[in-house]
Specification:
The chain is of the alpha/beta class. It is built from eleven helices and eight strands. Helix content is 51%, strand content 11%.
């Protein structure tokens, strides 16, 4: 089939061109890929799958027409032609032989297996989280990390579920229920240890040039552990504490990283702080401090950017603690008021945000 031969089709504008109301409902990518190298055909197919495009004929893929979808197909066109293939992008009000309802059905059919697979994985995690099935690999932090992966996967599927596949609601519900169950079980199973220390008016010592974990830990200390805490900043090596001083987040400190826990998480555990909102803040701090998406909380990127801005603006460590405290206070109040950790009904980023971030990474 020659590019542009679909009925009602017009050429798509170049990226950045204005989009007007007269454009078609669909955008099509029509391509011919050379037989070699063999991996390139698979690479293109995987890219189209990530965009949520569906095939309507051999080598013809369709997306609902938006500024983003036109741009996505234009980027794919450039990659195909750069490898010696042929490609065309065009817009269409209708596609020969298929009604709009039929095309929408193709999109729903494509996403349905994704949701069903996610539901199966969520139910497996729910069974593993039951107290009777708990083992060394099913710690609260480990279960929360796995839930974070499922949450991110759900957001990715929703981002390319343009017409609402039948199992979408069921997938959202099972993830939301799993999160509620894990929070309930954590609260019911955790008990405050009889060895929880009592601290009042101590001098808390940490390394100079404080960043996320120490800023968050200082807020936690003064807010929940030691309201009269004083903070002292010292070089990272060879410091010997004086009487009445407690070190945190530094070598040989009384409170620092333990196992996979960052200092904030260590403090909540050692002082018996079981507030679900603090657990979520600990997950956010953990991912920023370790530079890994273990928990995948949607708030993480915003918190990281705000704290990075504070660190750039203020060189003085005490000023960083002063400016950072309202960030965590506001985050805590937000998480404590509603269902812990929810930004929307399912606790997820919007599909548009997720898709935009994916696009930035691709380029």
């Amino acid at each position: 089939m020659q590019p542009g031969s679909e009925e009602g089709a017009t050429r798509a504008p170049q990226p950045g061109a204005p989009i007007n109301g007269a454009s078609g409902r669909w955008v099509l990518l029509i391509h011919q890929i050379p037989p070699k190298p063999a991996y390139f055909r698979v690479k293109v197919w995987r890219r189209l799958q990530r965009l949520g495009a569906v095939a309507i004929k051999n080598s013809v893929y369709v997306l609902p027409r938006t500024e983003d979808s036109v741009e996505d197909f234009q980027w794919q066109l450039r990659e195909i032609t750069a490898e010696g293939g042929e490609a065309s992008v065009c817009e269409a009000n209708f596609v020969d032989g298929l009604s709009d309802a039929a095309i929408e059905g193709l999109f729903r059919t494509a996403r349905e297996p994704d949701y069903r697979a996610l539901i199966v994985e969520a139910k497996k995690l729910a069974r593993r989280a039951r107290p009777a099935r708990r083992n060394a690999n099913a710690t609260p932090n480990g279960l929360a990390a796995e839930l974070g992966k499922l949450r991110r996967r759900l957001a990715e599927i929703i981002a390319i579920d343009f017409f609402g596949a039948p199992s979408r609601r069921a997938a959202q519900d099972v993830i939301a229920q799993l999160e509620r169950d894990l929070q309930t079980r954590t609260r019911s199973e955790d008990t405050v240890s009889t060895s929880v220390p009592s601290v009042r008016g101590a001098t808390w010592v940490t390394r100079t040039d404080v960043h996320v974990d120490r800023i968050a830990s200082a807020w936690l200390i003064r807010r929940f552990i030691d309201p009269d805490a004083r903070f002292k900043f010292v070089p990272p090596k060879d410091y010997r504490p004086s009487g009445g001083e407690l070190r945190f987040d530094m070598f040989d400190a009384e409170y620092t990283h333990e196992g996979e826990a960052c200092t904030f998480e260590t403090l909540t555990q050692r002082f018996g702080l079981r507030d679900p909102a603090l657990r979520i803040i600990g997950e956010i701090v953990h991912d920023i401090d370790y530079k890994e998406p273990k928990f995948g909380r949607p708030e993480t990127v915003g918190v990281e950017r705000v704290l990075s801005g504070i660190a750039r603006q203020y060189g003085d460590d005490a000023a960083r603690l002063t400016q950072g405290a309202p960030v965590f206070e506001g985050l805590y109040e937000s998480l404590a008021q509603g269902p812990a950790g929810s930004l929307n009904a399912s606790g997820l980023q919007s599909p548009k945000t997720t898709a935009a971030r994916s696009k930035r990474k691709r380029r």
